[in-house]
Amino acid sequence: MAGIKVFGSAASPSTRRVLLALHEKNLDFELVNVELKDGEHKKEPFLSRNPFGKVPAFEDGDLKLFESRAITQYIAHRYEGQGTNLLPADSKNIAHYAIMAIGLEVEAHQFDPVASKLAWEQVFKNFYGMTTDQAVVAEEEAKLAKVLDVYEARLKEFKYLAGETFTLTDLHHIPVIQYLLGTPTKKLFTERPRVNEWVAEITKRPASQKILQ
Q1: Where in the cell is it found (predicted)?
Q2: Please, which residues have CB within 8 angstroms of residue 11's CB and are 6 or more apart in sequence?
Q3: Strand, coil or helix: 82
Q4: How many CA atoms lie within 13 A of 169 on its CB side?
């Protein structure tokens, strides 16, 4: 059987989300570069792997997947007994699993749309020779602040967003946070004590460091 392959860009937050899960599981894999600047993700053969033309795509033997959060959930379940457990400590406890699932939804629908816009404006536009729109930054920072206020309250009760152990809920935040820590938006994390501690904890993990190399 063929091994694990990730088709994407090492700079892409979505690709990094999958790479993080693989590193946490200590799994061997091949990263097949998809050159985004050249639009390779919008052409064949990539479109045969993801018809929506977004990285990453994923193969584990004969299984072919796309959508980074679906891929990380597959990795967490398929390799549950290997490396870091990315599910609740008692993954068979439906209530605990549901709490993690809420966190996954919040990250995908409340945190990431705003944080990704901020990363686009302040980091990725530079790659394409474009200019940051400070009005957009100000608008999106106001939205992110509200999300982080909710996180601050949650993290006063628990070490991590889904409880006392690191899970996919936390992992999914890491790639965009890493980019934002290199921008003025960093202040939104550092001025909230519990959020600041959480960010420091999740970004210092060995897997988090590996995706920066």
Answers
A1: Cytoplasm, Cytosol
A2: 36, 127
A3: coil
A4: 27
